[in-house]
Design goal:
Helix 10 runs parallel beside helix 12. This protein has a two-stranded antiparallel ribbon with strand order 1-2. It is an all-alpha fold and 522 residues long. It is globular and about 105 Å long.
Length: 522
């Protein structure tokens, strides 16, 4: 038994050795055998090249290790990138305000004109893009004289942006303080120009011919807006005299408001607005989307005002965002209280316009005033807008959305507020250049006088040009739709479609007599 057992053990051991020898449990050994067999199958000339190939591979590896790593972006390059990113984001926010204007104006107007209002607000930015690119940007920021820019049409000409200050070599010297590429400068200014044109849309709603509005928008963005803008932001004569408007209470809002006022005046009131010498309310059809429009505009203002820094300066951006928000909130509160006391009810349309009034009012001074002052500016703007709406109604100026009250009246107020509450240069890190101390900040009336001069001259020039544009259109194409088309609604007459197909809408019965509703009576 012992011999038999020993024999079996030897047999198992031998099998294990054979199994280990034949099984591929040693991959390193097998790979070497395969490599050796592969080399043996090569031709003698190929085998002779192998040592050279190995040397080349080793040399490449050494060269890769020995090379100095590629230098990363410099601090200056990173700053340009961050500034450009912030300016682009701000421009996108301001562009999104077009959606806010669409919702706000459509909600404030009647159902039968919804398509027309939406169409105007949508196409106006497309037209503004072409007009401002081809003509407007050059007139506003191109090198020229104190009155108008004369270079840079179609964005052509010398420019080495993002170089700034003395290092800048180009034809847009008025913007040599902004350290971003020229395309970023243009995009940001373009959305502002589009905003000015959109303001007009609401004031002339529900009775203007579509084609006339398109032509007027081209003329406003291409000629009127950039000329007055050159006086202030383009290094023109008002800038030389110390006029300051940080983000556009006058440059954008007042200019759009003046143009809207003249359009509403030349058009006349809507049919049925005045009966027996009384103002008849013509409420909007959808206050839900009007409220949504207000919230979108409020959001967009965080690009409108803080974006005007045109640099990713955390201190400046955060301060301006707070003053902007504070004024908007205060305007909404004061308008609510004022409407409640003056009109008897907390009117939602007044709450909406109060918020926008506060935002417009702080736009000129948002970088120059403290937070308490922004609260006061917004409170006063909210009160002004309520009385302004009723004032224009009594004058016979029919503005369906209150654009003249919000943008013109509160734009003027915001521009003058710079001369009252600006803290003066040197208080804030971003405020090295700017308006002198305002009256309530320990200064005199000097800055207020300059602001008043700017308001008057920009207003007078815009009224003059707008009147010429409107009168020329009225004499050639006629600016108002027919009575029948107005009663039926501009959606059908101008666009051949309805905004709410299949829903009950206002019928032909107007609720007022033909004599009372005549256009020319008031």
């Amino acid at each position: 038994m012992t011999l038999k057992f020993m024999y079996k053990q030897k047999l198992k051991t031998k099998k294990r050795h054979l199994s280990a020898k034949n099984s591929p449990i040693n991959p390193q050994f097998n790979s070497k055998v395969k490599l050796f067999n592969l080399i043996r199958r090569l031709s003698p000339s190929s085998q002779a090249c192998l040592p050279i190939a190995c040397l080349i591979v080793l040399g490449w590896g050494y060269a890769a290790v020995a090379q100095t790593p590629a230098a990363g972006p410099t601090t200056a390059e990173l700053k340009v990138a961050l500034d450009t990113l912030w300016v682009a984001i701000a421009a996108f926010l301001v562009f999104f305000m077009n959606a806010g204007f669409c919702m706000l104006e459509t909600g404030f107007c009647r159902q039968k004109n919804a398509v027309n209002v939406l169409s105007k607000n949508l196409i106006v930015f497309a037209l503004s893009t072409i007009a401002f690119w081809s003509i407007g940007f050059a007139l506003m920021f191109g090198d020229g004289n104190d009155f108008i820019g004369l270079n840079g049409f179609f964005l052509g000409g010398a420019d080495n942006s993002p170089a700034t200050g003395d290092a800048y070599k180009g034809i847009f010297g008025a913007m040599n303080w902004a350290g971003v590429p020229l395309a970023a400068k243009f995009l940001f200014q373009l959305v502002f120009a589009g905003t000015a044109a959109t303001i007009v849309s609401g004031a002339v709603a529900e009775r203007i011919k579509f084609v006339d509005f398109l032509i007027f928008s081209l003329l406003l963005v291409g000629i009127a807006y950039p000329i007055t803008g050159h006086w202030i932001w383009g290094g023109g004569w008002l800038a030389d005299r110390g006029f300051w408007d940080f983000a556009g209470s006058t440059v954008v809002h007042s200019v759009g408001g003046w143009a809207a006022l003249m359009g509403a005046a030349f058009l006349g009131p809507r049919l049925g607005k005045y009966q027996d010498k009384q103002v008849v309310a013509m409420p909007g059809h959808n206050m839900s989307i009007a409220t949504l429009g207000c919230l979108i505009l409020w959001l967009g203002w965080f690009g409108f005002n803080p974006g005007s820094v045109m640099a990713a300066d955390p201190s400046a951006i955060s301060h301006i965002a707070v003053t902007t928000n504070m004024a908007g909130a205060a305007g909404g509160i004061s308008a609510t209280i004022t409407a409640w006391l003056y009109l008897g009810k907390p009117d939602l349309s007044m709450i909406i316009n109060g918020i926008l009034a506060g935002l417009v009012g702080i736009t000129a001074s948002c970088a120059y005033v403290g937070i308490p002052a922004s609260l006061v500016i917004g409170l006063i703007a909210g009160v002004l807008v309520v009385f302004s709406v009723t004032f224009f109604d009594k004058l016979g100026i029919d503005d369906p959305v209150g654009a003249t009250s919000v943008h013109l009246v509160c734009g003027i107020w915001g521009t003058l507020a710079v001369g009252l509450w600006s803290v003066g240069p040197g208080v804030y890190s971003w405020y090295a250049l700017g308006p002198e101390k305002g009256l309530f900040a320990g200064g005199g009336l000097g800055q207020f006088g300059v602001q008043l001069l700017g308001v008057a001259t920009v207003g007078g020039f815009t009224v003059l040009l707008s009147s010429i544009f409107w009168l020329a259109l009225k004499a050639t194409l006629g600016i108002r739709v027919s009575k029948e088309e107005e009663l039926e609604g501009l959606d059908i007459g101008e666009h051949g479609m309805e905004a709410y197909s299949g829903f009950l809408k206002e019928g032909d019965a107007t609720g007022f007599s033909e004599e009372q509703g005549s256009i020319g009576r008031f």
